[in-house]
Amino acid sequence: MNNSSFLGNIPPVTKNILIINVLVFFATSVFQSFGIDINNLAGLHFFLADSFNPAQLVTYMFLHANITHIFFNMFAVYMFGRVLEQVWGPKRFLIYYMVTGIGAAVIQQLVQYIELKPVLDMMSSGTLSPDDMYKAKMFLNAHLTIGASGAVFGILLAFGMLFPDTILMLLFPPIPIKAKYFVMIYGAIELFMGIKSYAGAGGDNIAHWAHIGGMIFGYFLIRHWKKQGLY
User: Do 180 and 164 touch, CB atoms closer than 8 A?
Assistant: First the structure.
């Protein structure tokens, strides 16, 4: 099978998501060599940080930290996203992808606000020295979220809801599992890791709450469509 026929078998929105993410990933590396940090410019900063702008709620979804990050996200988009697009059609799938991605960002921002509230209170108290205020602002700017994982988790949730009894073969460990159980287990793990990170029991630099946010927004959007009789 040649590359053109491979891409030709992928529905248009899924195909363009894959292409855009890969192009942006390589462009990020090229710009980095010229001293331009695309991840910092277009990644999602905390909404009260100086480096935040609303466009980042969308642009952060097309950035990735490394080859492993983009590979697993795009593999999931290819495996599950194309099935959803074939069922829903391009327009509805694109809406779903964007809503879950932006929804993931919103939940991540809300959790960060709760986590950073003590710092924000100190900044508004008027008691910080100029040097400490500068450090506090830099601390806020350092909170950066990138990646399509929020939308990807929305896709996984949708696949589990639409095809609950489909058998998936896990890689680690290599055992078969129904899609609905896979989604529930994955969601439970993310919730546990999110709570663990929030409680200060050790962080892994992964935006677990963004993953949960993508699933939450995906669930309610699918429920809304179902009530409207759209599928």
Answer: yes
